[in-house]
Fold these 2 entries.
Entry 1:
Amino acid sequence: MKKFFFLLLSASLMIPLWGGSARKSCVLYFSWSEKANTHKVAEMIAKQTGSDLIRVFPEKAYSKNYNDVLRRGRKELREKTSCPIKKVTADLKKYNTVFIGTPIWFGTYAPPVRTLLQQYDFKGKKVYFFCTHGRGGPGRFFSDAAKLTAGAKADASGFSCYGDHVNKIAPQLEKWLKEKVK
């Protein structure tokens, strides 16, 4: 009897609550800081889905001064200059579901996320996008990101939330995950 219970418990730990099968998923995201809204949403998604949490870092860190961050981000987006990122240490080949998150900067993804989408192959993977934003909403992020993940099974509708509401979004996020991520 003890052996059966151990086997049953072991098997149940392999099945994520949100999918019903032993899929492997991760949350890849860029956030200006660990206190920022995108980081908080990424943690919530990882917790609710049992996904690995992987933060993307630019090679050259952004300033701690918000106005400097805005100037640099605006310049990188306007000039379409590369924002080199540190190598993602996780083996992305082992994941079949990937959540990709970003703060919205000037109507689209932050430059490190653009670099991530350009450098890594998401072909054949289920990809779900999420973002946090200010007054401007998600802008072009979902459509811009879907274009850079050609060959993936990307859901271009995504999840977005106003940054000031991050601490109140748990019910909406849970609903989105149940509806979209099957």
Note: Strands lie at 25-30, 52-56, 97-105, 108-109, 126-133, 153-162.
Entry 2:
Amino acid sequence: MLVHNARKVLKEKTSAPKKAKKKKVLIAYYSRSGTTEKVAKRMQKLTGATLFRIQTKKKYPSNYDKLVKTGEKEQERQARPALKKKVKSMSSYDTVILGFPIWWDDAPMAVYTFLESHNLSGKTVLPFCTSGGSDISASVKHIRRVCKKSTVKKGLTANDVSNKKISSWLKKNRVSVKEQISVQLQI
């Protein structure tokens, strides 16, 4: 009887459920003015995810009017500007949070270069944008066309949003968020 009970206990210990593997998250973002970068860095602090900046090999003009013309031409031609670097181990990520500014109701063409130059099959893509007026809906439709073998979720227009709203969006999309502890000292 003692041997039988010992086997039963050993079997229970070895067949105990394993902890679910924590999803590995990448935050890839394109930012020209720094606005999208600020949001990406806030998300990184909330999640502990890896941060990757999407950068083109050729710099865009610093003059706003010239930048507008350049971006508009790229979009008309559906150009794919060359990028400085790729993510080295994209296969190790389960979720890609993708940030960008809205240019003419869409993501900048460099974002599509990024998407097309990485295998995102089976991954969850969570788009977020910053914008002077447009929302993210048109971009999400275009991203879904490019990422046919990925699950592209509803995007977040992240203009002036609180960490609470960002956390809520991340949690809704099953991204782990570090608990933020607020401490108030009284002297």
Note: The mean pLDDT is 87.
